[in-house]
Write a structure and sequence with these properties.
Layout (H helix, E strand, L loop, with lengths): L1 E5 L4 H12 L3 E6 L7 H10 L4 E4 L5 H10 L5 E4 L6 H6 L1 H19 L5 E8 L23 H18 L3 E8 L1 E3 L18 H9 L6 E4 L11 E2 L1 E3 H16 L7 E6 L5 E2 H12 L5 E4 L14 H7 L7 H17 L1
Parallel strand pairs: 1-2, 1-4, 2-3, 4-5, 5-6, 6-11, 7-10, 8-13
Antiparallel strand pairs: 9-12
This protein binds UDP-4-deoxy-4-formamido-beta-L-arabinopyranose.
């Protein structure tokens, strides 16, 4: 079956393309290369042994999106990653986020709505929960007012998909990611943050390799065991596999409603200091860091209740924090050796 992966040259998208190929899907990658590199295509090719079909498409251009689906009129499966995702940038430039993340989603859905039946996997985020009251977080936890325009585009995106699915042949699964980290075991693909990394793990690996002087730990005065924030860090390969399982669920008509929601995490929370200690153990390198003030907008704690994903979706994270950090470190060393 032919499937389009939007943002397929991005971090999670590229790993999902690999897993789709492994499961026998025919994949068309579209990406506008605004936050990814064409070199990722080579990395994917080295892993799967064939050059994936790639088209440079900007989903903000409605005529281009329409032309794409007219050309590939046999496509009924879409995994939609393409979106801007930097929380801080979204605060400074909200319209960039509303145009890119919402308009492109609308144009995609307008094409799928023309089809009798289609299958849509949406890249959502645990950010929609804000600071949830209870841990671990279930899918029934209330969706909070967003802490950033980025988070708002995920919340609005879920609502748009839900409304459209009611009146069309679109079947959708919303995957609410926790914190994706790591890289492919071959070190052929991984995370490629543009500029100074905002996220913890790429900042750690860039510090360990010497690009950054030291890691700033944003606060150790939170109400947690060691005072630093807790997150559910999930290996990007486990996360990629969840997308293929979700797509297969829709294709096989196993979904119990037109729109289903699943938390995709490990179900385990790790503090910033625990991640640092684990990285030092895995890499054998002491990590220079300093404790600084809290980062605006950070929540204290978030980790997933994965019962629905495990028991209904039939997916479970298998890789550990150590394996993810080891893969991230190997990837960083590979990228810097080129
Ligand atoms: C994790 C923890 C920081 C950097 C965001 C988005 C989420 C998803 C993942 C896109 C926090 C601490 C971080 C640093 C630090 N994005 N930290 N020093 O904020 O949980 O989630 O990225 O899909 O939607 O909200 O991830 O990696 O930025 O931070 O101390 O240099 O590490 O305070 O506690 P976050 P993160």
């Amino acid at each position: 079956m032919k499937v389009v992966v939007t943002g397929g040259l991005g971090f999670i998208g590229s790993h999902t393309v690999v897993e789709l190929y492994r499961q026998g899907f025919e994949v068309v990658i579209i990406d506008n290369l605004s936050n990814s590199s064409i070199d990722v295509l080579t990395g994917i090719e080295k892993i799967i042994g064939t050059k994936p079909v790639f088209e440079q498409i900007d989903l903000r251009d409605k005529t281009v999106v329409t032309a794409f689906f007219e050309k590939h009129n046999d496509i009924t499966g879409v995994i939609h990653f393409a979106a801007s995702k930097a929380v801080g940038e979204s605060v400074e430039n909200p319209l960039l986020y509303y145009e890119n993340n919402i308009a492109s989603l609308v144009y995609l859905l307008q094409e799928l709505q023309k089809k009798k039946e289609s299958y849509f996997i949406f890249s959502s985020s645990c950010t929609v929960y804000g600071q949830a009251e209870n841990m671990p977080i279930t899918e029934c936890a209330s969706v909070q007012p967003a802490m950033s325009p980025y988070g708002n585009t995920k919340r609005i995106g879920e609502e748009i998909i839900t409304d459209v699915a009611k009146v069309s042949g679109i079947n959708a699964i919303l995957l609410r990611y926790f914190n994706p980290i790591g890289a492919h075991e071959t070190a052929e693909i991984g995370e490629l943050p543009v500029g100074v990394p905002q996220n913890l793990v790429p900042f750690i690996t860039q510090t360990a390799i010497g690009i950054r002087k030291e890691l700033s730990v944003y606060g150790d005065d939170y109400p947690t065991a060691d005072g630093t924030c807790i997150r559910d860090y999930i290996h990007v390969v486990d996360l990629a596999k969840a997308h293929v399982v979700a797509l297969r669920r829709l294709i096989d008509h196993k979904n119990e409603s037109k729109v289903e929601v699943f938390n995709v995490g490990t179900g385990k929370g790790s503090s910033v200091l625990e991640v640092i200690r684990t990285f030092e153990k895995v890499s054998g390198k002491p990590l220079p860091y300093k404790i600084v003030g809290r980062r605006e907008g950070d929540i204290i704690e978030a980790y997933a209740n994965t019962d629905r994903a495990n028991q209904i979706l039939g997916w479970k994270a298998e890789l550990t924090l150590e394996e993810a950090l080891d893969a991230a470190w190997k990837w960083e060393q590979k990228v810097r050796s080129i």
